[in-house]
Amino acid sequence: MSKFGNMLLMIEYLKTGRKYNVKELAKKLEVSQRVVREYKLFLEEAGFTIDTIMGPYGGYVLRKDINNPILKISDKDYETLKIINLKLKNPDLDNIMDKIKVNLLNEENKNTSIISNDGELKVYNALCKAIKFNNKVRIKYYNLQHGESVRIIYPLGLYLFQNEWWCSSYWEEKDDMRQFHICRILDCEILSETFDPNKINTKF
Fold first, then answer.
1. 3-62 belongs to which CATH class?
2. pLDDT digit string (tens) for 67-101?
């Protein structure tokens, strides 16, 4: 795999929240441990924050409490793939190329301002951290019908819907799964109390 592809794969491993040591990553990426350390430096220059935990049980951990950049395929990457595809003449690759082209067109038409202000970014980063460590969160939420209210939630994941961020969570008071619009979370406090996501019934 190319250097760029290996770095993308390294980020995918670290995005799981698991700690990987250099030896594990080298084995998974099929490169030397020295190359893994070089990848880390390149990724940090690109804006990713990768913490190094020292000691015999140490390793690399991707910081999720900040807004890490997202690596995407560019038009230049697509044109390079087209040249390769012309030489390989693989019908399976034709199908993949069509999907990539559709995604690139969708990106062009998408509003790039996903996080609208500093307050929303602060909430987003806090929820990322809570999800990583399974912390309960106290939020002040604005509902169009009932106004402001304080809720204790167990955040399970963040997702984009119609170019806006939402948080899928278990709502303690209602004993139910709810979807919270990030822009309506007025305040967000990470609590010291944790929860086990595997014990939450998400099939309400």
1. mainly alpha
2. 555 556 667 777 777 777 777 777 666 667 666 76
